[in-house]
């Protein structure tokens, strides 16, 4: 959920964020089910931008190792206070510095690719730190696809500290960036009512042996 850019924002809102219920439980559960169906019990998974740890705690018990990272100390404080199995761990790191345990079988990047300073650079690092055949799971809010009025409102909200810094990606530019990083997109869909929140599953080629 968070990266180094905007960390102060996420530290400030962490308690309110944690107390806020999931807006669309059915959509969230359906996304988790899709991710779970693609993972195996022997997978080592890295999650960047884990926020308060809800996804890690839902999916982590079914894999060999789940390393969840976030750049916000306050978000991690909340995540670490939750009961977690021994194979789920939390570490303080921004999205570009989270790969100490590489290579991974899968990387989860939920609501983070629009928050990092350079989406393409982050995707390149993810690709480089996945095993051949490894999976990228992402869900990204595409501000660039919103209507003109909503896009004009975002800088006002940001100036008032109500939203974090973010890149106005579109679905097309997001997809293009993932492909240019070396991935093959396997699935792109929307869960729930938010038409601008794109769920994408992409795979690194099994022929790609770069570390």
Feature tags:
seven-stranded mixed β-sheet; 7 strands; Class I SAM-dependent methyltransferase; alpha/beta; methyltransferase activity; SAM-dependent_MTases_sf; 211 residues; Rossmann fold; transferase; 7 helices; 35% helix
Determine the CATH superfamily.
Vaccinia Virus protein VP39
Overall helicity: 25-40%
Give the N-terminus to C-terminus distance in angstroms. 26 Å
- Please describe the biggest sheet, giving its number of strands, its sense, and whether it closes into a barrel: 7 strands, mixed
Percent of residues in beta strands = 15-25%
Q: Helical region count?
A: 7
- CATH topology title: Rossmann fold
Give the strand tally.
7
Question: What is the arithmetic mean of pLDDT?
Answer: 90
Question: Structural class, from helix and strand content?
Answer: alpha/beta
- Helix-strand topology string: HHEHEHEEHEHHEE
What's the structural blueprint in terms of helices and strands?
Layout: H1 7-19, H2 25-38, E1 44-48, H3 54-59, E2 65-70, H4 73-80, E3 88-92, E4 104-110, H5 119-128, E5 130-141, H6 148-159, H7 171-180, E6 183-189, E7 197-204
Parallel strand pairs: 1-2, 1-4, 2-3, 4-5
Antiparallel strand pairs: 5-7, 6-7
Helix pairs in contact: 1-4
